[in-house]
Amino acid sequence: MDIGHIITLPEFKAAMGEVLRKHEDKLLGAWNTNTEYTDIWGHKSGKVGYIYSELAEELGMKWRHEYAAMYDAVYFKDWCPIAGGGGRQAAFLSLVVEHENNHETSGQEMNRLLSVNASLKALVTYPDNNEKELFAAYAQQIKVVDDILPGYSAQQRHVVIFGDKENGSLVWTYYIYGHGEFRPF
After folding, report:
1. Where does residue 40 fall: left (phi above 0), alpha (psi -120 to 50 degrees), or beta otherwise?
2. Which residues sit opposite 67 in a β-bridge?
């Protein structure tokens, strides 16, 4: 059993960028149509999406949607048995991704990411010119955990990807949180 793999920031950005470029036409065609747009990302409305599954392929990982009935997508190398013969679970969460169309509720997704132990956690949302306010709110959420677990934020495990539509193309900007702030990478 290959239990884990730590996904580096460059590895994640390259894989996510490749998948998003590949599906730009689909994403542009469904822009601002919540259900159809979300379906492209993953299993919503009973349909199989593209982004989550192809990201797993790019990363050489397995993935599950709505893992533990909580996270949009988790990525891992292998399964391990649950003690007592209760089935199986991911051996180690390498990546957890939350996607939220509505930036006003994206803080809920950040909170979910803060509740899971994974080597990398990513939130994808659409800021609608509210980047500064969103960064301040996300940073405050992370600071609460950092106050309880000193050094938590220094691990640089929280990525925010802001998507926007400019001149008929999609633009994805990646930020990493570390040492009290989000910065582009």
Report:
1. alpha
2. 71
DSSP state of 153: G
The pLDDT-based confidence of 46 (bands split at 50, 70, 90) is very low
Of 73, 166, 77, the C-alpha closest to 124 is 73
Digit-coded pLDDT (tens) for 155-172: 778 999 999 999 989 999
CA separation for the pair 16, 57 (Å, rounded): 11
Q: Within 13 A of 143's CA, how many CA atoms are on the CB side?
A: 10
Sheet holding 181-184, edge to edge: 62-67, 71-76, 95-100, 120-125, 158-166, 169-178, 181-184
What is the spatial distance between Cα 123 and Cα 109, in angstroms, rounded to a whole number? 7
Cβ-contact 103, 130 below 8 angstroms: yes
